[in-house]
């Protein structure tokens, strides 16, 4: 696909400005790129956490090929909610609140940290790292982690570093070569879900082997004051490898191919159901890098499941995250999750939507005088988030051939690489057989609806360069002039 892909959309690095923000306040974590300028070439900007953030650079079709063919560079997560947990009781705090096993948690390891409500629903999740003795770092767990920390007198401290740290994500077959050239460091030794320190231009950075697209990927964590110059260096170094900066549209899409259901993209947090937490937040406002809408007010709930916010909340099993739960310790939601495990057999699979049925939906838009099916935005339901500046979640009911309910479909995207409409399906065991045909009910209640055929496919859908298990020894080690 696109044999000359590497040579397309070259960026004039002389126009990449790390000091000035023409016209608008751009994110302090990314330099100004002419490709993202509003009203030039049709590019758009969105308000992300009060900062003007590009919706796309070279277009979502071009950008979404990058993690398959060359390398994507994303700064969409900035500013990231980042919290250091430090002190003699740091491990105790994690063990009493996270569902994960923190006894088997060596320094240099990444875990997928989950925090649940007493009813088993997911409050929040994100990266959890053991960075030093009695020191951990949690991403995207605030402000709920702050609330939990306030419940007991721990001999430890929480330190918010959300605006002091940048996070860049690189994914694709050339990302390791680019990072090794940028750091002057052989990074082949970093195993999947591991990290270690390196440097860029003499500044300390943390390199993690981890990513959402499913292909070979790494993250770079560094001090925010060097974010723009480090971003520019990565971008400049990656030019000869066909690197693509990716923006909001594309970042939200790579999670589906990679098999990572994501909070605030595909489903909503259940933390607003915890009345004690809501009261805590009123008295102790969270002042980190991002301001969260911890309620469901102002969120648009679409899809055939109806507007009840509860239909857009999930427990770990429904998200394919049951493997993260360790049962050998007490944590909020343990009893409820144990009951769910014993009585509810729901897991997440990949659904591929039927092309003929999709064509009928689009064709209905062009028949004068007749009712039409709900418009199916491309490239994803989340397109409206970027274009209209609000949160939108779309979730649909899934049935079998006899009309029996199997579960929910969520996170629909169009994959340009695979030329397929895909979504996650949180389905019961009867609906998870590979190749099985199911029916997704498209359209809100009270409107013209259609049962769209879909087949259960491999999960994750990405089937090449898989980060977990990819042999980096197939990539030549760097040779540096010392």
Automatic annotation (TrEMBL):
Please identify the protein, giving its name as recorded: GCVT N-terminal domain-containing protein
Q: InterPro entries recorded for this chain? A: GcvT/YgfZ/DmdA (IPR028896), GCVT_N (IPR006222), TrmE/GcvT-like (IPR027266)
All copies of domain GCVT N-terminal, residue ranges:
48-262
Pfam families named among the record's database cross-references = GCV_T (PF01571)
């Amino acid at each position: 696909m696109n044999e000359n892909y590497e040579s397309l959309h070259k960026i004039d690095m002389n126009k990449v400005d790390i000091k000035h923000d023409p016209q608008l306040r751009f994110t302090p974590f990314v330099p100004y790129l002419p490709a993202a300028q509003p009203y030039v070439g049709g590019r758009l900007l969105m308000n992300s956490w009060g900062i003007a953030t590009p919706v796309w650079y070279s277009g979502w079709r071009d950008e979404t090929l990058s993690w398959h063919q060359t390398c994507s560079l994303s700064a969409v997560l900035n500013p990231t909610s980042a919290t250091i947990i430090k002190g003699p009781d740091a491990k105790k705090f994690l063990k009493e609140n996270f569902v994960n096993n923190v006894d088997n948690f060596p320094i240099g390891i990444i875990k997928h940290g989950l925090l649940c409500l007493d009813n088993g629903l997911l409050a929040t999740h994100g990266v959890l790292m053991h960075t030093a003795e009695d020191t951990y770092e949690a991403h995207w767990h605030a402000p709920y982690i702050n609330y939990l920390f306030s419940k007991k007198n721990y001999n430890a401290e929480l330190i918010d570093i959300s605006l002091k740290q940048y996070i860049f994500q690189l994914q694709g077959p050339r990302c390791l070569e680019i990072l090794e050239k940028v750091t002057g460091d052989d990074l082949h030794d970093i195993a999947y879900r591991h990290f270690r320190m390196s440097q860029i231009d003499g500044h300390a950075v943390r390199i993690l082997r981890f990513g959402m697209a499913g292909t070979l990927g790494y993250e770079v964590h560094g001090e925010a004051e060097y974010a723009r110059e480090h971003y520019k260096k990565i971008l400049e170094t990656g030019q000869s490898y066909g690197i693509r900066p990716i923006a909001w549209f594309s970042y939200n899409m790579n999670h589906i191919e990679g098999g990572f259901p994501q909070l605030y993209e595909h489903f909503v947090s259940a933390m607003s159901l915890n009345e004690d937490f809501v009261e805590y937040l009123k008295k102790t406002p969270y002042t980190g890098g991002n301001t969260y809408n911890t309620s469901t007010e102002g969120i648009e709930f679409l899809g055939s499941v109806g507007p009840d916010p509860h239909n857009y909340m999930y427990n770990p099993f429904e998200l394919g995250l049951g493997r993260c739960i360790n049962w050998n310790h007490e944590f909020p939601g343990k009893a409820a999750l144990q009951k769910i495990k014993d009585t509810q057999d729901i897991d997440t699979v990949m659904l591929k939507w039927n092309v003929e049925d999709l064509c009928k939906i689009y064709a209905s838009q062009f028949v004068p005088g007749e009712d039409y099916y709900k418009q199916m935005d491309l490239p994803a339901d989340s397109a409206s988030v970027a274009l209209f500046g609000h949160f939108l979640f779309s979730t649909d009911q899934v049935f079998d051939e006899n009309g029996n309910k199997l579960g929910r479909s969520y996170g629909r995207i169009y994959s340009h690489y695979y030329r397929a409409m895909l979504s996650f399906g949180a389905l019961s065991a009867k609906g998870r057989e590979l190749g099985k045909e199911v029916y997704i009910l498209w359209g809100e209640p009270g409107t013209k609806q259609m049962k769209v055929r879909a087949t259960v496919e491999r999960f994750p859908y990405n089937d090449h360069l898989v980060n977990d298990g990819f042999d980096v020894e197939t990539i030549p080690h760097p040779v540096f002039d010392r």
